[in-house]
Design goal:
Elements lengths: L1 H19 L11 H13 L9 H8 L1 H21 L2 H22 L3 H11 L4 H9 L1
């Protein structure tokens, strides 16, 4: 129970840190808070009936199928980006994020772990960050 509270606090701090540096309208009410709420819903669907819940249906098909859906949505987002269609890119990005949250939940990865990694990288050059992974 204490670990969950600590993870929630870490996620809250990461969100606060991220949103204080982002100009409106991205800072509020959008951002990681929406993803955190969606993640709770996605987790709650684990025991649901696959006949009535798309998320439960994904879980029932297994990790490989969920990962495949993440890949499909990523490709669709890329295609819309190349086409230059911002509205379609936003829609495909939402689909990608949803499927990524399902994959995280399936594997027991808490979004707070991802937010923490992003917060750690904040202010670090992407080039420097990639070099540090090779060492």
């Amino acid at each position: 129970m204490g670990d969950k509270k600590a993870a929630e606090k870490a996620a809250e701090k990461a969100v606060e840190k991220a949103t204080e540096k982002v100009p409106a309208p991205l800072g509020a009410p959008f951002g990681a808070e929406v993803l955190d709420r969606l993640f709770v819903t996605v987790q709650a669907r684990k025991g649901a009936d696959p006949e009535t819940s798309y998320t439960a249906k994904l879980y029932s098909r297994g990790t490989a199928k969920i990962a495949q859906k993440v890949g499909e949505e990523a490709v669709e987002a890329i295609l819309e980006a190349v086409r230059g269609d911002k509205a379609a890119l936003a829609a495909e990005s939402a689909d990608l994020l949803y499927h990524l949250l399902v994959l995280w939940a399936d594997l027991g990865l808490d979004p707070a772990e991802v937010w923490s990694r992003l917060a750690q990288r904040e202010g670090t050059s992407g080039i420097d960050e990639k070099k540090s992974r090779k060492a």
